[in-house]
Specification:
Blueprint (H helix, E strand, L loop, with lengths): L1 H8 L3 H10 L4 E7 L4 H9 L4 E8 L1 H4 L7 E5 L5 H8 L4 E4 L9 H22 L3 E7 L12 E2 L9 H20 L2 E7 L9 H6 L3 H13 L5 E6 L8 E2 L18 H5 L9 H4 L15
Parallel strand pairs: 1-2, 1-4, 2-3, 4-5, 5-7, 6-9, 7-8
Bound molecules: 1,4-dihydronicotinamide adenine dinucleotide and D-galactaro-1,5-lactone.
Amino acid sequence: MADQAIRVTGAASALETAVQDKNPHKLGRLLLTGAAGGLGKVLRPRLAAFADVVRVSDLGAALGNDAAPHEEVVACNLADRAAMDALVAGCDAIVHLGGVSVERPFEEILEANIKGVFHVYEAARRHGVKRVVFASSNHVTGFYRQDERINARDLRRPDGYYGLSKSYGEDMAQFNFDRYGIETVSIRIGWSFPEPKDRRSLASWLSYDDLTELMRCSLFTPDVGHTVVYGMSDNPSTWWDNRYAAHLGFKARDSSDIFRANIEAQPLPPADDPVRVYQGGIFTATGPFEPK
Ligand code: NAI
Ligand code: 15L
């Protein structure tokens, strides 16, 4: 248990070394969008194991100018088609994390997420990029109940405009594979933060080390077509079945079990509270947003 706790919070260096050993074929240049966000900051140093050069991008105000030796820092708005085209030029693969990451009014989602993912794939097609890893979300299927177990082939049931935008991103991924042969792994991330905060995230937690390993599998597994995988650690209970992503070879090493006693000491929400009923939790009850 102690060993698990250390891996959950510890530095990435040991994992990076292990990852690199398994990966003789490093990429030349990898693009990371959303690099100034929570997961972008975690992945920035870790992606050095996967590519000689990591081009890191986000909105200028969030990004700053500091670049590690393996990095190129390029400010770019996902909603700007020409800027996105220039951003992608020269890259071998894209990890697309950028965008609005919670439920928000449609107009905000439209710019960052819907136009943004369109621009990613348009630029990928024009510049011959053949692999994208798309940060999708569990909110693509947020209206399933927590007593249901689902897999990637079950009907999508987005729980808001945010979930709808991720569902659109997955459709863009499938379309761009069918039409142009651009391969994507869409990771329906559960809850990727240092630790779970409630019962819901006990089931959906994805540790940062497991996220990094899932990124490695998503970038380097051949012939993924468009693969959808739920991004979760080896948690004691889960709502998701990853049988259709077995070819990625992803094996989670962490488990939310080490947090379970503390979380289960929290008071239980009422039986009809969305955080207790639906996989998407409070997202299923956020909004509507009326025009101002
Ligand atoms: P975050 O909100 O911390 O980071 C998102 C980044 O995207 C921010 O740095 C933001 O400045 C950038 N961004 C927003 N609009 C932009 C625009 N128009 N142009 C350029 N950049 C823009 O989110 P986080 O937690 O790091 O998540 C990363 C990705 O993973 C997101 O796409 C999110 O939807 C997805 N995800 C994350 C989960 C998690 O548990 N952290 C769970 C499910 C999905
Ligand atoms: C997400 O998609 C969000 O990006 C993240 O911030 C969490 O809210 C997570 O889902 C969740 O399901 O709680």
